[in-house]
Amino acid sequence: MEKLRIKEISNLVHLISQNEEMASCLNSIKEISRSLEQNNIAVALISIIKKIADVSDVKLFCLTEGKYFYCDGSGRKKIIDEIEDINIKEVLVSRRMLEISDKKSHDNFTRIYPLISEDNLIGAIKIANIKESKRNILHYLEMILYHFTNILQYEISEKIKFQNIFEHFERNFNRVSLIVDTTNAGIWEWVVGTDIVATDKRFAQIIGYTVDEISSMTIKDFSEIIHPDDLRQLKVLIGRHLKGESELFENELRLKNKSGEYIWVYCRGKIINRDENGNPTLVTGAINDINDKKAYELELKANEKKYRLIAENMHDVIWVYNLSKNKFIYMSPSIYYLRGLTVEEAMAEKLEDIMTPESLNRVKDVIKKEMPKLLEHKHESVIVAMDIQQYRKDRSQVWVEISAKAGFNSDNEIEVIGTTRNIEERKNMEKELLSTIRTKDKFFSIISHDLRNPFNSIIGFSSLLMDSIKKKDYESLEEYAGYIFNASHRAMDLLKNLLEWSRSQTGTIEFNPEYIDIYETVNEAVRLLQDFANRKSISLINNISTPVKIVADKNMLSTVLRNLISNAIKFTYPNGKVEISMKSDKNSFIISVKDNGVGMDKNIMSEIFSLESNYTSLGTEKEKGTGLGLILCKEFV
Question: What residues contact 580, with CB distance under 8 A and at least 6 apart?
Answer without folding.
Answer: 522, 526, 540, 541, 542, 543, 544, 561, 565, 591, 592, 593, 594
